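Feature request disguised as a bug: please show the residue count (215) next to Tr-type G domain-containing protein in the output. Example input:
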Amino acid sequence: MGRHQGQPPGHPGYADFVGELRAGLRAADAALFVVSASDGVDGTTRMAWDECAAVGMPRAIVVTHLEAARADFDEMTRVCAEAFGDDDPDAVLPLYLPLHGPEGPDGHAPVTGLTGLLSRKLFDYSTGEREESEPGREQLPPIEEARGRLIEGIIAESEDETLMDRYLGGEQVDVKTLIEDLERAVARGVFFPVLAAAPPPTAPARDSARSNCWN
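Example output, currently without the count:
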């Protein structure tokens, strides 16, 4: 999608904006919605989302400005699920969680990288280079909670109707199957991944947004 300057309903430029948006959608294959952790979801973003939904366009969400002192990725994910999930908030879920460094004197813990939920890997960029590691024992509970919800969200949209019963019955679903089902659900416009971004060197948005880095 191209970048558009929104106009509120009733504004003289609103009809032109909607017309430009619809024309842009005809030329687009997918839409990436950028939502600021500082500003939240505005009316123009909701309207653009509804226009994309009307044509069944695949969509994903990137939460930015996570470096802000009061930024809360979990809260913004919840806000996005309420705004964009309609009756299914589990269709709007993160693929990654922000990885935070030590708290500074102001009590703010900066974002230093990402935690891959499907891969259970930490990607730390605090040195300016990507360093991959396993999570520590104290890091596992929130990762496993978010990972379980993500897996159930993906499986709920799977075209394999037996997969949820098998998963709930204790079967371990391999990551390759989850990624394939995730990609199909996104392409069908029924699942909307949430990605995280912050300024370099602490937020490699290129890793969380690349299509071959779902895991």
